[in-house]
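Format notes (please read before filing issues)

Several people have asked whether sequences and structure tokens are stored in separate files. They are not. Every record keeps both together, in the order shown below: the sequence lines, then the token lines. Line labels are part of the format and must not be stripped during preprocessing.
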Amino acid sequence: MSSYYNFNLGADEEKKKKFNIYSLVSLVIFVALFTLMVSGFGYWGFGRVATIFMLLFPLIGVVLAFKGKNLSKWLLILFNLLAFLMMAYILLLALGIGGG
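Then the structure lines:
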């Protein structure tokens, strides 16, 4: 019966650290794609796909950061949400919907 329960609390903490790392990687991928977009990179005809990925990576980062731990959890949530909102606003401006 005791083998059913996991008394190793360190394993759970390591998983939470990995979620923080995965969220940070998601944010770095977004920053790389955004930097390429701003510099005029063509994406070889996959511009819409790259734009969709630039919306999805911050959202994935937020979901993964919620599973993380410590102060870095909240910082990653904040940065990923800011990245998502910035990209959504840019798309709204490009489509002529947002801004004044």
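For reference, the curators noted about this record: Residues 38 and 97 are 20 Å apart (CA to CA). DSSP finds three helices and no strands in the chain.
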